[in-house]
Write a structure and sequence with these properties.
Layout lengths: L8 H10 L3 E3 L3 H6 L3 E8 L5 E2 L7 E2 L5 H6 L4 H4 L1 E10 L6 H16 L5 E5 L5 H11 L6 E4 L12 H13 L8 E5 L2 E4 L4 E2 L8 E2 L7 E3 L4 E3 L22 E5 L7 H8 L4 E6 L7 H12 L3 E6 L14 H4 L2 E2 L5 H13 L5 H10 L2
Parallel strand pairs: 2-5, 2-6, 6-7, 7-8, 14-15, 15-16, 16-17
Antiparallel strand pairs: 1-5, 3-4, 8-9, 9-12, 10-11, 12-13
Bound molecules: D-glutamic acid.
The site of D-glutamic acid has 11 residues, from loops.
Length: 362
């Protein structure tokens, strides 16, 4: 089957409603040759995108079903026995706590029932790093969990989805991927969830791990990890019984900044605020005063940076000890937000304990 002959989104709706589990291309010979089992959980994104009539290069995310995505990739059945389920069919700009909780529940069930050697999650690239980081903070397992997406829809010339998906299944089914936490695979590169970051709006070479480098490389023939598996692991955080996670807002700092966006966030009920600060996580006097006032009211304040790489340091330009702030170190604002949501959900709100949790998150 070619990508152009992929079925329409009607099949996605059906598979979401029925949570149908499909065994894909399971030839007896292939299955016998390679006993690895991989569970593919599809959430949508460009990898499942199809051309739209809107404009020449327009497309709609999340239109192709998990089963059809897999059928479009030759020789997948030689890598592993694959089962596929549709968890959602959304562009990842709409990613939300409900899908995150559903993913965790499904992966935990797979671990408990020993259903798979690895899990692959197909996902839009826009918020992939947040989902990967979230899963890495709550899932207690050595099983490889690999997020994959694409920058071009399945109907585009030079679609990158099929190769990325093949390589993701290859990584998820490989014994050497065990114990490496949650991974992101795109463009022949393997990233750790803590560092993976989308850095380019359209290039297939968009994911980078700027402060650490990729953990490895993959092609159709080989997997090469270039970093050892992390020796120390941060303790996992408990997930509340049901979504949503506590509200944490990101406030973006800029020239001519006042405290209004921070005051607004507090009024809207934010339990935490992450500052996407300038430079070393800094902001204007007015915004700092508003942040300090928020912290005095019990809102947890974490300073991160809009810069895109590097570490935010404590007590250099901003007196965190006095003002009651924590810093995110090298976690970007969107990941710092996810961690703060989980910390608040776990009752960790005292600034020193919050800071310790960011230090421990390696
Ligand atoms: N709508 C965006 C998303 O699903 C497109 C980006 C992508 O998937 O690459 O994240």
């Amino acid at each position: 089957m070619t990508p152009h002959s992929l079925r329409s989104n009607r099949s996605i709706q059906a598979s979401i409603c029925l949570t149908v589990v499909l065994m894909i291309g399971l030839g007896a010979t292939a299955a016998a040759a390679n006993p690895a089992r991989v569970l593919v959980l599809a959430t949508g994104g460009t990898i499942a995108g199809q051309a739209s009539a809107r404009a020449g290069n327009a497309y709609d995310s999340g239109k192709v079903s998990a089963a059809d995505l897999i059928s479009a990739v030759p020789d997948m059945d030689k890598l592993a026995r694959i089962s596929a389920e549709q968890i959602s069919a959304i562009g990842s700009q709409d990613m939300n706590d409900k899908v995150w909780f559903d993913l965790v529940a499904r992966i935990r069930a797979a671990i408990e029932k020993k259903e798979a050697n690895g899990v692959v999650i197909t996902h839009g690239t826009d918020t992939m790093e947040e989902t990967a980081f979230f899963l890495s903070r709550v899932l207690e397992t050595d099983m490889p969990i690999v997020l994959v997406g694409s920058m071009r829809p399945s109907t585009a010339i030079g679609a990158d989805g099929p190769a990325n998906l093949y390589e993701a299944v290859k990584v998820a089914s490989a014994p050497e991927s065990r114990g490496r936490g949650v991974l992101v695979v795109l463009n022949d590169t393997i990233h750790g969830a803590r560092w993976a970051q989308k850095t380019n709006t359209t290039s297939v070479e968009t994911f980078r791990s700027r402060d650490a480098g990729p953990v490895g490389y993959v092609d159709t023939g080989s997997i090469r990890f270039v970093q050892p598996a992390a020796a120390v692991r941060a303790p996992k955080l408990k997930l509340p019984d049901a979504a949503p996670l506590p509200r944490v807002d990101i406030v973006y700092s800029h020239a001519n900044m006042d405290g209004a966006p921070i005051e607004d966030a507090v009024k809207r009920g934010a339990k935490g605020i992450v500052l996407a600060g300038v430079g070393d996580g800094n902001t204007s006097k007015g915004a700092l005063e508003a942040l300090a006032a928020a912290a005095r009211q019990g809102v947890v304040v974490v300073r991160s940076t809009r810069v895109g790489s590097g570490f935010v340091n404590r007590n250099v330009e901003v007196n965190d000890d006095t003002l009651g702030f924590a810093v995110s170190l090298d976690l970007n604002p969107q990941k710092a937000r996810v961690l703060l949501q989980l910390l608040i959900a776990n009752g960790i709100t005292e600034p020193k304990a919050v800071q310790q949790a960011y230090v421990a998150t390696w």
